[in-house]
Amino acid sequence: MAVRPENAHHARLLRVLREGPCSRAELGEAVDLSRSTLSSEVNRLIDLGLVEADGLAPSRGGRRSGIVRLASRLRFVGIDIGATSIDVAVTGGDLEILGSVAEPFDVREGPAVVLAKAMALLDELRDRGLAPEIHGVGIGVPGPVSFRAGVPVMPPIMPGWDRYPVREELGHKLGCPVMLDNDVNVMALGELHSGPARSVADFLLLKLGTGIGCGIVVDGRIYRGASGSAGDIGHIRVDDSGPRCSCGNTGCLEAYFGGGALARDAEAAARAGRSPYLAERLAENGVVTAADVTAGTAAGDPTSTMLIREGGRRVGHVLAGLVSFFNPGLVIIAGGVAQMGHTLLSEIRSVVYRRSLPLATGNMPIVLSELGGTAGVIGAARLSSDQVFSGE
Ligand SMILES: [Zn+2]
Questions:
Q1: Span 335-350, mean pLDDT?
Q2: Spacing, Cα 33 to ligand 1 middle (Å)
Q3: Cα(251) to centroid(ligand 1), Å
Q4: If you measure from the C-alpha of residue 243 to the centroid of ligand 1, how many angstroms do you get, rounded to a whole number?
Q5: How far away, in angstroms, is 367 Cα from ligand 1 center?
Q6: Distance 213 CA to ligand 1 centre (A)
Q7: How big is the chain by its Cα radius of gyration, in Å?
Q8: In angstroms, rounded to a whole number, what is the distance separating the alpha carbons of residues 153 and 164?
């Protein structure tokens, strides 16, 4: 049965309950409704099968208030398609993960093959009995997306996906609402739901992976810009005479410190004899990857550490500009390259704190994501539940 809030009150009540069960009294305070309106709207949501009664709250002096929660039958699905992997998770209405699967997969296989794989992974979870019904699906992809049309638009690292009707095709296949966004916005939503950003209205999520991008959250909502490309900071030019980028320009941040660029520089260092550690990886595997540089830093290889410091410095310069412009309350660093941890973080911090005004940075932590690989699927599920609980 589809989830359809009947009015704006329902939509707001459902979004409050998404954060967890609460008493009718607390709910009334959160949405500012009169006692009688609240009571009739909550009862209606119970009749619709969207909310369940869940016992009585401890007394606050008067009559004990009934606890309500989202119906336990609600299911959302988050699909996080990365450049080299697919993650799928099933969540309850509160977006807690009930089960998940992940597999390495190359997004360049094209939309038909990749989406079929995602559906096969979802079937695995359904076979485990995790999702008898599905009320909404959110998908993140590693490239620019027209949020309104539900299609990727000229994504540089996703050949064959341009204007592919992802939202429409999966909506038909699954018979429920489907939402599509880029992977960075989806990760930012994941942090908004269960990371340190829960209590911060305005923040930036910097994703450093195969691509580089920035999720912009303003007043608790994703800011997408006029045509949906806000936050595409990987293509900000950091050097006029830099290496060529996948977008066709030269000197982009991503062409210096995206996963591919880092692997390229590490391999060059290995071949030039500047790093015995990386030369050994090259001899063993025939290639050097960004993950080798991470491992190299942990193993004390000075060249790996230098590569990460240089990258962190460039990211820091771009971020300092963003901080001056946007004045975020928090910056979260996420993505595969961000697993380089504290060497990277300290370099970024030192540039940003040195170059931005104290008023902007005085109360602005820069932290690594604590959600690991789950930010994408939680955020994708949240994207879908935002839409389903909007009543539109
Ligand atoms: Zn570029």
A1: 85
A2: 50
A3: 7
A4: 10
A5: 26
A6: 11
A7: 23
A8: 8
Taking the centre of ligand 1 as the mean of its atom positions, its distance from the CA of residue 253, in whole angstroms, is 7
C-alpha count within 13 angstroms, C-beta hemisphere, residue 196: 17
CA atoms within 13 A on the CB side of 353: 12
Give CA–CA dist 243/127, Å, rounded. Answer: 48
Cα separation of 212 and 229, whole Å? 13
Both tokens of residue 169?
Answer: 């095709």
Quick one: pLDDT at residue 228?
A: 85
pLDDT score, position 232: 92
Distance 203 CA to ligand 1 centre (A): 24
| DSSP annotation of 100 | E
Cα 27 to Cα 3, 91, 195, 250, distances in angstroms: 20, 23, 23, 53
Question: For residue 95, what pLDDT is reported?
Answer: 95
Average pLDDT rounded to a whole number, residues 224-238: 91
| Residue 128 backbone dihedrals phi, psi, to 5 degrees | -80, 5
The strands making up 22-23's β-sheet, listed across from edge to edge, are 22-23, 66-70, 51-56
Strand 85-91, strand 97-104: pairing: antiparallel
DSSP category for residue 204: E
Nearest to 246 by CA among 292, 212, 222: 212
Burial class (CB in 10 A: 0-12, 13-18, 19+), 299: exposed
Distance 252 CA to ligand 1 centre (A): 5
247 CA → ligand 1 middle, Å:
4
pLDDT in tens, 43-86: 999 999 999 988 777 776 777 778 999 999 999 999 999 988 99
